[in-house]
Amino acid sequence: MDSSTEERTKQSMNGLRTIDYDFVLPQELIAQDPLTDRSGSRLLTLDKRTGQTSHRHFREITEFLQAGDCLVLNNTKVIPARLYGIKEDTGATIEVLLLKRREADLWEALVRPGKKARPGTRLIFGDGVLTGEIVEIVEEGNRLIRFAYTGIWEELLDRLGEMPLPPYITHKLADRNRYQTVYAKYEGSAAAPTAGLHFTQELLETIRAQGIRLAYVTLHVGLGTFRPVKVEQVQEHHMHTEAWEVSEEAAAVVNETKQNGGRIICVGTTSCRTIESAASCGVLQPGRGNTDIFIYPGYRFRMTDGLLTNFHLPQSTLLMLVSALAGREHVLAAYQEAVQERYRFFSFGDAMLIC
Fold first, then answer.
1. C-alpha Rg value of the chain to the nearest Å
2. Which residue in 28, 215, 217, 300 could disulfide with 253, CB within 3.0 to 4.6 Å?
């Protein structure tokens, strides 16, 4: 165990405070719109050992990747999960955010306003081709809703739903494809794996031609990504659960890269949480499951060597994960530098490469 790992382990044993992950972020640095050119965003690089940084553009990421490396990407696809409807009994407007499919037509959802959204409440969407009934209130006040409809679910959702942009984005999204990665494939997310939004197909082809392998895994991102940490001690926070899947092919690519001495660089915290959840004894295991893994300083990474990620919310679990990989002091110093250099933050913002 190297000295930096020992120090992070010691910090974890002594307890970490949520306030230790706070920083001042000017409101105007929160990106409200995606750039016209996906790969035109800025890129801050951070050496996880020394804390040294550099300032580049995203398309220059190829200069920091080496033949024999592997990028792990999350190919989940965001569904238009925000529905607006009315309550059948009162006609009051209601907003439903689909979080997780429990079974065929049964979904866990966030309902607003929620105080009077009790079991038995019937909801009507659009012209009535889609209806729902709240059948149960579950943890954190979420509702289970059973839907009934005429037609094909995916087509109805595409027609009636809106993309579930995070609460800090107030601008309307003109093109919903800009909240999808170019390699999005399997529907199921309530939020995008935003580190991947910077890639174009052309850039991915350039990376492949450079001798860098791509491994696609799936983790369906839930609303818990945006939930704040409300406890004083980090380790007391309870993570949300998300569904993941690792194919035989992806596991083979990652394991071969490791065996050959290449680096595993995760594109986004969701890819990182997936392979860390699926790893056992230094080997990535294919399969599927649900994970509530919480990564914060003191955690010993099983597979991840590097991370490409956006800039995260103060006091968030995502900032804690990044700090586990590069050290809290290095990360917060880099964030301060990003603020000074006027980087764009959060989902539609700029990127950070840690390796």
1. 21
2. 215
Q: What pLDDT is attached to residue 6?
A: 52
Structure-token pair, residue 211: 């001798």
pLDDT for residue 225: 66
Half-sphere exposure of 5 (CA within 13 A, CB side): 5
For the chain, how many structural domains are there in total? 2
Q: What is d(CA 93, CA 229) in angstroms, rounded to the nearest whole number?
A: 30
- Boundary-marking domain end, from 131, 160, 189: 160
What CATH number is attached to the domain comprising 349? 3.40.1780.10
| Residues 290-299: b if buried by 16+ CB within 10 A, e if exposed | ebebbbbbbb
CA distances 86 to 41, 111, 125, 147, 261, Å, are 40, 12, 7, 14, 57
Beta strands 42-46 and 122-125, pairing class: unpaired
What pLDDT, on a 0 to 100 scale, did the predictor assign at position 11?
45
**What distance in Å separates the CA atoms of residue 154 and residue 159, rounded to the nearest whole number?**
9
Q: Are residues 283 and 341 in the same domain?
A: yes
| Cβ contact 163:176 at 8 Å | yes
Q: Alpha carbon of 29 to those of 89, 139, 327, 348: distances in Å? A: 43, 34, 24, 11
The CATH number linked to 141 is 2.40.10.240
Spell out where 169-282 has E strands. 186-189, 213-219, 242-246, 264-267, 279-280
How far apart are alpha carbons 51 and 244 in whole angstroms? 32
Nearest to 268 by CA among 56, 36, 77, 71: 71
Q: Is residue 165 part of a domain?
A: no
In a domain, 168, yes or no: no
Amino acid in position 331 = V
What length does the chain have?
355
Bridge pairing between strands 306-310 and 264-267: parallel
The pLDDT, as a whole number, for residue 8 is 46
- Reading the block at residue 297, the tokens are 């300083």
Q: Rounded to an integer, what distance in angstroms lies between the CA atom of residue 310 and that of residue 339? A: 13
Residues of the chain with pLDDT under 50: 1, 3, 7-14
Task: Indicate if the alpha-carbon torsion angle 231, 234, 235, 240 is positive or negative.
Answer: positive
